[in-house]
Protein 1
Amino acid sequence: MAKDTESVESCGTGCGCASAGHASEGHHHAHVEETPFEARVDEHGTRRMFLKLAGAAVAATAAVAATGCGPNGPTAAEFLQQHYKKLTDEDKKKIFARIEEDTKARTGVTTRVNDPPPLDGVEYAYALNLSVCNGNRRCVEACARENNLPDDPEIRYIRVLEMEAGSLEFEEATPYYAREKLPARDKWYMPVQCHQCDNPPCVRACPVQATWKEPDGIVVVDYSWCIGCRFCVVACPYYARRFNFFEPEIPPDRINPNQGYLSNRPRHKGVVEKCTFCLHRTRKGRMPACLEACPTGARKFGNLNDPDSEIRKIIESKRVFVLKEDLATLPRFYYFFS
Amino acid sequence: MITALFRFSIDSVRAMLRGSRAYYLWMAFLACWILLGATAYWHQLQVGLSATNMVDQIPWGAYIANFTYLVGMAAAAVMLVIPAYVYDDHDLHGVVVLGELLAVAVLVMCLMFVMVDVGRPDRLWHMMPVIGRFNWPVSMLSWDVIVLNGYLALNAGITSYLLFTKYRGQRPERKKYVPFVFIAIGWAISIHTVTAFLYSGMGARPHWNAAILAPRFLAGAFAAGPALMIIALSVIRDKMGFPVKPAALNRLRQIIAVTMLINLFFFFSEIFTELYSFKHHAASMRYMLFGLQGHTKLVPYIWSAVALNVFAAITFMTPRLYKHQKVLYAACGAAVLGVWVEKGMGLVIPGFVPSPLGEIVDYTPSFTEFCVSAAVWATGAFIYTLLLKAAVPIELGKLRLAGAPTLSPEDYHQGHGHAHEGSEDHSHGSHETPSPSPEAAE
């Protein structure tokens, strides 16, 4: 990788040199005796080389520090942008317009960034019927298209594990299966995505409150506030968070123009993202993309606070369970067998 | 006062710029590494953290492993401070400032390792109180930011005060700095404890989720830290003519003999608990010690670390071995390296393997990670050397304010003295070896 490294142009006139000259011309306030090993050696050549190198190092470091994120670094407005919760409606309007313009300039695609608020009295929950899931992974692809996830290198919010019959052990499972016919014999399939925990360890981990739980239970990330420390990735017991190690590239014809500020709007390298139960859809009364794409009917989604909702009936009547219950994360994502 | 402070700065900088050919070569050597690392970091800024070998399964790598280890090295300065101030060990008093300066340089390295690890360094201001949105007290990382910066401020403050008073030919006033020394002692324990809590508080990572982690961190750090200090003090003695009493080095050796055994004992306790219960949570431990499903990348690292630590422990306890300078230095090097590998490849990385969904992904640092990490280490060495270049002549009374009275080491250490405050005629006995004259060392 480092072979592509661009060489750092050093100005050579770094402050190291200048201050060095200044100091040696200074008045002799002090009485300096050389320590034994430091016996006076006036090796001008060596010293000059040293100063030059030191100056270059200082200059290079300063250059790196000044540019922050390199040539494609943040603009002043991006750099100074406040935390989501401090933004006024006026601020949001400007920011959304800026994001739309930026996408237009980069890809030529006209997008619409909006920010649907959480609905009053609504708390979402998800349930997944493991008896019918056959591991076809349509949900994974639909999610990627809906949420503007890059294909190369791939970022996916949903991971479908192929489990060994008779085992609930993840170490025996694999997400890397490729089969002609699904489901395979003696296998069963377990899709895992963000569980939108009611007690989310990732939110506690974040040092800058860039991720939080919304009133409807969805855990969101402010991609413009995340510093990219990945402590939330470390803290998540469900492997639900993704970090943008690369600058994500989406082909223009695959960009979903309907974008939520806290969900599927463009992200850049260096920040964390995750499943948001497609809040830009679900908060407008639609179903998550993964559910719509599922051909087996394994996926169920709805408002936990509505006593007549399908999700409520499943949780009340089926034998549901949550993953890693012992960690007391209180997931909003339930599994059941029918 | 202001003029004196100004001259103190000017004279210190001038002292840093003067030196022998060997000094310039050493600094040029370090500068080369820094340049290489700056170039690598520049590359990382362009392409993002894809320049590293980290992936979602291994979200932290060499940078945070080095950070974790170095926090311990910074904390280990108390292994000089506690004997010197709490037990009034006069032998260590003479070198305690050098240990505190080491902590300063190491803390700068810690902060640099965090900075190179974040995906958006331009947003680090989000962590600042008031202007940012600091998640204190909930996030352990916010605690870490506070304790590390606080410890840096304490050590920088204490050493600056001591050196500045010495430069002016005055004796430091105990009430002006000793309270801070005692705060720093507690603070030092806190920095490594908080760093351990970053890990042990993770329910998602069974390998770290153990109460013994913080004690184990401290034991390892209090072995590796003094080992590095023995090496550093020997170099300072031989190359800069600073009198380091054999008794001081011996005291450090005694400390490591105990702490390294405790470190190995904690490690063994953890291995036993995990492996004997034979639960699935022990997968990380099995991966680290024996490999899992053919993935054995970490195995050689951890066994070398154990071998190095055992070698160090035996040497530090056996007079026949440690009385030979070379063997002693080798054992110090083994302790420094052994604990480093144990913390990085033995603790940080296996915590991620298997992943929360059971995946086994191997990790070794990329070339970029290697260069950047090496550069941060070089920067630490660069800073420490610069600090020493000013501090050593000041400590020796050779660099001082024009017209300032000369203090003998006895006078000076009187000011440091803890139990005998104000007793002007207190004698330090015969263990005050005279500093070697420049001619003698030439």
Protein 2
Amino acid sequence: MKIKVKIKRCDPMASGRCEAYIQGYDIKAKKGMTVLDALIWIKDRLDGTLAFRRSCRSAICGSCAMMINGNPKLACKTQILKEFEKRQEILIAPLGNFSIIKDLVVDLTPLWKKINKIEPWLNPVGEPPETGWIISREEAQRIDNESACIMCGVCNGGCNSQEGDPDFIGPSACAKSYRFVGDVRDGSKFKRLEKISREHGIWNCMRCLMCNQYCPKGVYPMTAIEKLRAEAIGEGIVDNFGVRHVDAMVESVRRVGRLDEAMYTFKSLGFLRAVGMLPLGIRLELHGKMPHPVIFPEIDGIEELRELMKTVEEKE
Amino acid sequence: MKFAYYPGCASLAITKEYNATTLLIAEMLGIELVEMVRANCCGAALFNDQNRELNLTMSARIFAQAEEMGCDILTLCNTCLMVMSRAKKELEDNPEMLKAINDNLAKAGLKYNGDVKINHLLWVIIRDIGLDRIKKLVTRPLKGLNIGAYYGCHILRPSDAVVFDNPDAPNSLDNLISALGGTPVEYAGKTRCCGFQLDLVSPEIAHRMVGKRILDCKESGGECMVTPCPLCHINLDSYQGYANKLLGVKLDMPIFNLSQLIGFAFGLSVSDMEFSKHLVSPESLLKTKDLV
């Protein structure tokens, strides 16, 4: 099948800034052909100036992360015809959230810096045993998903939180952090959790699930973030707005069975920040939207719900 | 067509117009909605941060109630949809966990058998009602109105649990806009995040997301937006003023919820659609298009 592959290109090294343009290449796509196969064919036969990273061609090295029809994917793991069918076109762009070096090659330095920040190495608990460290199958399985990361940057490239806050630690570093937090041989759990709970850390993930959706290796970074949050709360690292937000939600459900928005906002933000939202509150009230700030009806069966929550919470 | 109706907390309070307009169009479409008066909040994805078992128990309590009612669940909220769908899948994949959760529920006299299906209103409209029937009910085609379909996150992801549209290239909401006589606008941010979950954690980041999404739609020719999610609606409409201030722009982008757009095209009045509850009024836009 003849298709046009559109590629978003730019060459900041030549012009000093990124003036992106779309260039189309006509290719004959065959069943089973990957986006990377197509790029290699284009570079060989049509245009040697096209720049992109690649190495293993089998989703192991993590070099060819890019935006394919708007979503972050590995070019070597994505079939071009299947992708074409979805939109009747194929547009390839450099990985999101990174600055461009040339064409589809982005500067991944921020990715490495963030991963480095979480100390991606084992800080052994006590002296390592001389005969090797035997851990059980269950203990190893706890960090199975997170250990599969190939650091391709797909998750950071699609991350909404990183789009809104470039300093956000990012899903890849969070998954890597859990790989050590969940490792029974590591002795720096508290320190790791304390550090990653700070500003730009785990509590700034907006739960958009892009990383869980697009990770090519089944790492599920957002699930790792949820686990880090639960571990941090378990360790008593609770002095931040993220934890207040969670506490306010649980408290609201225990009190009335559902979300008492006014009180929940107040408790999450704290007095000073909540006062800052008063003008919006007044506007909402004028439009008849404001939930009652004090009286909020309970759901039917609230006693039963409270008992149930208690049953689960006491199990811990 | 009968469903256990779980509008979600937001649509019973701050976005109450979504609930009200849904009840109106449900009647016109012959969808019977039986309210789940005993149902609890799903936790909006926050329970997991504290206690995974609490999250699953809270969702399973809702499922057990729906099973008792003999109906599948219909929700208006993307996030309720995602939380419950994810919990359902987790319980399907892990029979041991299902047993533990049922032990918890037994104390409240409830049991979850694993039979419940969770639907979003948008899915029921596309799959069960069908766009042909929708087209027949349109008496006020949204002619000349360029509408950005804003899907949001949780109606698409994670697609192993939330199964309907293609998460890479969804089209249900765009097709609905066309069926109502409007013109869907193609823009990059339609499946990306409005930042809602950071509203109370890092508000400035959330406001930036709101501004980016609306600007993106506007620059692609959108005159208004429609979203199936009450949480996206809170951000895009109520927080638009914050985004204006932060980015130094005047977005002035009316945001419809799903039921309002349908009801309006079905000929229901402006007051029935409760547009006055929005902070950004669509009325002048609708006037310039001769729709009111």
